Task: structure prediction
Amino acid sequence: MTAQRDLCHNPPEETKLKILEAAAKTFGEYGYHQATMTKIAEEAGVAKGTVYWYFTSKEDLFLGLLDNSLAKLYANLELVVTSPTEPIEKLRRFILAYLDFFSRQSHLGQILSRGGIEGLSPEFYHKMIEWHDKFDRLNVELISQGVKAGAFRNDLDNKHMAKVLSGVVSAIGSTQILNLAEIDIEAETDLILTVFLDGISSK
Amino acid sequence: MTAQRDLCHNPPEETKLKILEAAAKTFGEYGYHQATMTKIAEEAGVAKGTVYWYFTSKEDLFLGLLDNSLAKLYANLELVVTSPTEPIEKLRRFILAYLDFFSRQSHLGQILSRGGIEGLSPEFYHKMIEWHDKFDRLNVELISQGVKAGAFRNDLDNKHMAKVLSGVVSAIGSTQILNLAEIDIEAETDLILTVFLDGISSK
Amino acid sequence: MTAQRDLCHNPPEETKLKILEAAAKTFGEYGYHQATMTKIAEEAGVAKGTVYWYFTSKEDLFLGLLDNSLAKLYANLELVVTSPTEPIEKLRRFILAYLDFFSRQSHLGQILSRGGIEGLSPEFYHKMIEWHDKFDRLNVELISQGVKAGAFRNDLDNKHMAKVLSGVVSAIGSTQILNLAEIDIEAETDLILTVFLDGISSK
Amino acid sequence: MTAQRDLCHNPPEETKLKILEAAAKTFGEYGYHQATMTKIAEEAGVAKGTVYWYFTSKEDLFLGLLDNSLAKLYANLELVVTSPTEPIEKLRRFILAYLDFFSRQSHLGQILSRGGIEGLSPEFYHKMIEWHDKFDRLNVELISQGVKAGAFRNDLDNKHMAKVLSGVVSAIGSTQILNLAEIDIEAETDLILTVFLDGISSK
DNA sequence: CATGAATGAGCCTTCATTCAT
DNA sequence: AATGAATGAAGGCTCATTCAT
Result:
């Protein structure tokens, strides 16, 4: 904020960001266990010690990254939910935002949908549960709006419908990605939407 | 001669089974990377070298385990698909069999649904893909039967419907399990069934 | 010796021989440390336990093999030395016998010439030294005969000449073999003979 | 700036040297397979991980050591060959340099003369062959000079004479050393020289 | 005699983490 | 803030050897 700070070539924040980006790329490419601090530091173009100056541990770095990514996804989804759109189109955009996230951050996507990675600390799980709950509430909110507006059934528990929704989305998302096929996100979204709205029953 | 054999206290097969069970438990509890051969050997009550007598590597052991479990699941699902039941009840049993499997073998369930674990050999991935395809074909068969019988919609691609089905099931299955909540499998099955058949649309 | 013994399909000696042959092949192909008891047992077509019935340890087996091979080589050389041939022809045959041995048993050849393998017991070294001395004495005897017959110089210490002789032979032998070139043993022998007899000096 | 650097107590290079020395001692004492990374690290007074900071593997370390030692030996021999000395004295110094090397680095000497160690990577063998060829060429050059100068016979193939020379030298060198006798290198050199120049023939 | 399952010490290597500079 | 050398616990795996059958 001071004039002096602005003269720095590498304001601290910039280094932290570089590390975060490198971590995203590396974790994304290799997964948590295969990604090493050495790889991440190299990718970021800094020394290993520097990574430890900004993050106390590998887990801390991973958590930081997750927080970062999930916050973005959450913001996107929230934007959709709070926008003044009619329920079904809103649902479509909602699914689209999810799939888009999965297609960009496949491994992180998996983590979100499965609830974590083995062998991490309780703190990690706590954070994950917090996020899980936040997303759940958003899902429920989306469904509730639709029910209130008369677009969705009111004979089912909103929470359950929300759960199925997130289930389908994350499953399709991560499965697709692992097929390494180039997915047509829009088409996939429409498919999910159709099934989720009307079911596969012939009547 | 055969009678004599039965008197053996520890036929080799028994040891292999002990190891397989220990592996199931350990991989299930810790995940692939956190599970160590030492832990598995201890759990099985044998020396580390013994594990390597039956399996050439950690990956080989894991693959053996996976093959074992997936073969069982596949057999169960196949039984359902080929049984002379009406489509919707058949679908219910199908979902039930999946959820039952997930609730027993949570980590293996994840692997099946998400397609793998980072850092393993190409052979592993090849095997996984083979299984994935086998299950896919079974799912499609189930849907096709329903469509033919007039129970399911015929305006959607069978493969797509099958994909959504397996997506919902595996997502619900593994998500639930990670919540560590005691799940009412029957209830969960009915929920999925309802949504999948009729959709959440109010009409 | 008894009639009963002769009826056996596999007299003990036969099994022992099979193992010895397998050991020769395996040690020869892989060297001492790379050769495993498993490989040897497989090559011999017997169970690992059987190898341990005839030989108390890997080292013991190796020693047995060495004794076997060296005894044969020794017998051949002795035959040459004690035969009634004129000194220079005798020397030629002597070198030939050495090179022939090296070309057949490259690894054992190395062991003989360099005096052993690291990491074995004192007993092993003791045996090796015994053999070394035996061969040395034979070499000296050969040289002495030639000196006495007036064919070789008498102004040099016989022991030293013998040492140089064995040096040249073993070095040429093993070096050649490692080149993996098909060696013309006869030609090589003549070359060594020429240099060893007349030197390379121009006068 | 450079002055400042010199104040460092432990410049990285020093650690690498400590490890190289420890490796030389340990490989020399135990041979390649018996020498363990643990022993080497202990001998060097560093942690095992530190060895891996400087060398990517045991083989890499061994190769580094070999390269180091052979480069020195080669430099010494080259000095002799290119010096303006008369052929026979040159030959004497050449032999002396070889024996001196063998007496200091017995195991490495063996490796040079025998052409390798079992069970290493193709890269290792390739390097060894390169060195072998370099030394061969030097040997041939030495002989050629002597022939040109009229000091050595011209009725024999230079390459063959060179081969016998290196054979005698390495054999005598390594054999002697293994006897663990204190060798009089000068005397040994003269012996080899005499035999190699004049032969043992009485005429 | 022969088998082969079982053992366990020990090896090479990896990698998250620390710390002097 | 940043570096990178140094650490050491831990992991997967090998293989000589034993022993109940």
User: Anything to note?
Assistant: The longest helix of chain C spans residues 122-148. Chain C has ten helices and no strands. Chain C touches chain D through 47 residues (CB under 8 Å).
